[in-house]
Structures are given as C-alpha cells and as structure tokens.
Design brief:
- By secondary structure, the chain is an all-alpha fold.
- It has one domain: Ribosomal protein S18 (30s Ribosomal Protein S18).
- The model has no long low-confidence stretch (mean pLDDT about 90).
- The protein is built from four helices and no strands.
Length: about 70
C-alpha cells in the first residue's frame, strides 16, 4: 500500500502582501531565506515566486557586503 503524498501549495508572501518590500537593510525578513549554514534557500523551500526570489537573493548579497548578514555561520 502506497502512502498518499499531500503537497502544500505555498504562496509568495510578497505577492500576497503588496505593501511588503524587499530591502537589504531589513535583516529580520532576509534571515528567513537563509539556512543554518548561511546558504540562500531555494524557491521550493521558501515558497517565493521567481521574481521575488531573485530580489531576495540580491538583497541578501548586498546585506552581506555591508556586513549586516554573515557569509557563513561559523
């Protein structure tokens, strides 16, 4: 007997709430998109659409350059 896999459709939180912006200075929002090892999480894990995932990745990279976010966890 096979188990049924129920897949939950995630909705992009930036598409749902149009007033929310992606900014490299907003570290609390960006930390949700970084793994424990400091890697940028994929779209499948975060549920962001392609457009907003690109903006989040750019914002994380900018925040790392300005030393608001670490490059690695160690």
């Amino acid at each position: 007997m096979q188990k049924k896999i129920i897949q939950i459709k995630r909705v992009c939180e930036f598409c749902r709430d149009r007033n929310r912006t992606i900014d490299y200075k907003n570290v609390k929002v960006l930390q949700k998109y970084i793994s424990l090892y400091g890697k940028i999480e994929s779209r499948g894990r975060t549920g962001a659409c392609a457009k907003h995932q690109r903006l989040v990745a750019t914002a994380i990279k900018r925040a790392r350059q300005v030393a608001l976010l670490p490059f690695t966890s160690r």
